[in-house]
Amino acid sequence: MKANVTTAYGKQSQPPLRHITPVKGTFYYGSCDGTFYAGTRFQPTPGSTEAEQVALQDDGSAMKYFVDRPGTGWTFLASDTFPASPQGCAAIPRIPSHLTTLWNNCRP
After folding, report:
1. Least crowded by CB within 10 Å, which of 42, 52, 61, 99?
2. Rounded to 5°, angle at Cα 64 from 63 and 68
3. pTM across the whole model
4. Half-sphere exposure of residue 63, counting CA atoms within 13 Å on the CB side?
5. Are 30 and 39 in contact (CB under 8 A)?
6. Percent helix, strand and coil across the chain, each rounded to 5?
7. Measured over all CA atoms, what is the biggest interatomic distance in the chain, rounded to whole angstroms?
8. What pLDDT does residue 45 have?
9. Does the pLDDT at position 80 exceed 80?
């Protein structure tokens, strides 16, 4: 699941990001009515390009949220605001509230 979410984010990013991984302790996932949701922060991995490092420098600290509806695969859903809301992922209305509660509002 982590690999699929990472690939989905890397493909939609500009520039495309290939050398990234979720930040340890920030990956959340769950389902609601057959739809899967995930959230994480990303960081560069060894071999990352300067462009990837610059892209993650500003954007990497923000949580990214994804959805996988039946038959669609993982797609980018939303990102934290800047600065991040004190409500955490509960501030993202497209994520079901019972998941944000289980995820402790995406706070490690």
Report:
1. 61
2. 145
3. 0.89
4. 31
5. no
6. 30, 30, 40
7. 41
8. 93
9. yes
In whole angstroms, how far apart are CA 91 and each of 1, 60, 79? 24, 19, 10
Report the DSSP pairing between strands 20-22 and 42-44: antiparallel
Cα–Cα distances in angstroms (integers) from residue 104 to residues 18, 38, 42, 45, 76, in the given order: 29, 13, 19, 27, 21
Q: Which residues pair with 32 in a beta bridge?
A: 35
User: How many Cα neighbours within 13 Å face the side chain of 74?
Assistant: 21
pLDDT of residue 33: 92
CA contacts within 13 A on the Cβ side of 17: 27
